[in-house]
Amino acid sequence: MNKPKARPALPQAQDLEPGLVVATYGRHCLVETPEGRRLICHPRGKKNQVVVGDQVLWQIAGDEGSIEKLQDRRNLFYRQDEIRTKSFAANLDRVLILIAADPEYSESQLSRALVAAEAERITPIIALNKSDLAQPFAQAWERLAPYRAMGYSVMPISLSPRSPVADDGVQALCAHLQGLTTLVLGPSGSGKSTLINRLVPDAQVETGEISLALNSGKHTTTSTRWYWVPALDTPNAAHADRTALIDSPGFQEFGLHHIEPTRLADCMPDLRAHVGGCKFYNCTHLHEPGCAVLAQVENEHQTGTISVRRHRIYAQLFEELSQQRW
């Protein structure tokens, strides 16, 4: 009688090496060791999906590496629509949402990204590009007044080399990023690549090296990548205290299907400030009598702390998130 074959022994924790995922594409990724060496790794098993910013344990497998364990995450920033989930990055300190004064940014998309950050308890920063365009910038800046009133950091910047301004705002923005890990998020054309290339002079070279290593060519333009920002680091900064930027692909849609509609108001600071005062515990903040949120919505009959635009966005999102569950 043939004896069943013994399963290969699983690697022990002491046999594994720690690493940081700095780029992903398809089923392979690039892992950086604490000494700064980078190598291609493949996650073991379908459930072991990794994203940029993940801390992992890996071992050598031929000329490459095999990821054996995904360490616990502090957070995971992602979006989800009816078809799929798109994970951006993990273990973030900040999400920098970069928008431009011209062409006009989508307030719905901005609000969705902010909700996703709030849901994961990640501090967002809003940067409004093209401060050199006086009239469009003034109009865009005024539209952001509710977000400043909520306590969000809203930074004016100018990334245009053709129309430089005396103070382009980049240095002030950098003060909010130093020593932290920040995902740079925004629609195509908002200036993400310009900002990355300005703060990381070798970014284009590094991108080419990653493309070559992963053999992914032009497709890495739609992947997510980690960059160290040495200019913002203090001398002899420890590895954990270094400044990092994560460049993400541009997006046209930002689904929030992973968020329950009843949780939505708690992810919008202007609404969250008043939800405890509603008459009904299950108030939707849309039509109920005694709603403390509705009592704060500005209109022609009353002043309030919630702009009518923001409440309209909330109502649209609530309906969208409610419909998907039927």
From TrEMBL:
<feature type="binding site">
    <location>
        <position position="278"/>
    </location>
    <ligand>
        <name>Zn(2+)</name>
    </ligand>
</feature>
<comment type="similarity">
    <text>Belongs to the TRAFAC class YlqF/YawG GTPase family. RsgA subfamily.</text>
</comment>
<dbReference type="GO" id="GO:0019843">
    <property type="term" value="F:rRNA binding"/>
</dbReference>
<keyword id="KW-0378">Hydrolase</keyword>
<dbReference type="Pfam" id="PF03193">
    <property type="entry name" value="RsgA_GTPase"/>
</dbReference>
<keyword id="KW-0862">Zinc</keyword>
<dbReference type="InterPro" id="IPR027417">
    <property type="entry name" value="P-loop_NTPase"/>
</dbReference>
<dbReference type="GO" id="GO:0046872">
    <property type="term" value="F:metal ion binding"/>
</dbReference>
<feature type="binding site">
    <location>
        <position position="291"/>
    </location>
    <ligand>
        <name>Zn(2+)</name>
    </ligand>
</feature>
<keyword id="KW-0690">Ribosome biogenesis</keyword>
<comment type="subunit">
    <text>Monomer. Associates with 30S ribosomal subunit, binds 16S rRNA.</text>
</comment>
<dbReference type="InterPro" id="IPR004881">
    <property type="entry name" value="Ribosome_biogen_GTPase_RsgA"/>
</dbReference>
<keyword id="KW-0479">Metal-binding</keyword>
<feature type="binding site">
    <location>
        <position position="283"/>
    </location>
    <ligand>
        <name>Zn(2+)</name>
    </ligand>
</feature>
<keyword id="KW-0342">GTP-binding</keyword>
<dbReference type="InterPro" id="IPR030378">
    <property type="entry name" value="G_CP_dom"/>
</dbReference>
<comment type="function">
    <text>One of several proteins that assist in the late maturation steps of the functional core of the 30S ribosomal subunit. Helps release RbfA from mature subunits. May play a role in the assembly of ribosomal proteins into the subunit. Circularly permuted GTPase that catalyzes slow GTP hydrolysis, GTPase activity is stimulated by the 30S ribosomal subunit.</text>
</comment>
<feature type="binding site">
    <location>
        <begin position="129"/>
        <end position="132"/>
    </location>
    <ligand>
        <name>GTP</name>
    </ligand>
</feature>
<feature type="binding site">
    <location>
        <begin position="186"/>
        <end position="194"/>
    </location>
    <ligand>
        <name>GTP</name>
    </ligand>
</feature>
<keyword id="KW-0699">rRNA-binding</keyword>
<dbReference type="GO" id="GO:0042274">
    <property type="term" value="P:ribosomal small subunit biogenesis"/>
</dbReference>
<dbReference type="GO" id="GO:0003924">
    <property type="term" value="F:GTPase activity"/>
</dbReference>
<feature type="domain" description="EngC GTPase">
    <location>
        <begin position="90"/>
        <end position="252"/>
    </location>
</feature>
<dbReference type="InterPro" id="IPR031944">
    <property type="entry name" value="RsgA_N"/>
</dbReference>
<feature type="domain" description="CP-type G">
    <location>
        <begin position="79"/>
        <end position="254"/>
    </location>
</feature>
<dbReference type="InterPro" id="IPR012340">
    <property type="entry name" value="NA-bd_OB-fold"/>
</dbReference>
<dbReference type="InterPro" id="IPR010914">
    <property type="entry name" value="RsgA_GTPase_dom"/>
</dbReference>
<dbReference type="GO" id="GO:0005737">
    <property type="term" value="C:cytoplasm"/>
</dbReference>
<feature type="binding site">
    <location>
        <position position="285"/>
    </location>
    <ligand>
        <name>Zn(2+)</name>
    </ligand>
</feature>
<keyword id="KW-0547">Nucleotide-binding</keyword>
<dbReference type="GO" id="GO:0005525">
    <property type="term" value="F:GTP binding"/>
</dbReference>
<keyword id="KW-0963">Cytoplasm</keyword>
<keyword id="KW-0694">RNA-binding</keyword>
<protein>
    <recommendedName>
        <fullName>Small ribosomal subunit biogenesis GTPase RsgA</fullName>
        <ecNumber>3.6.1.-</ecNumber>
    </recommendedName>
</protein>
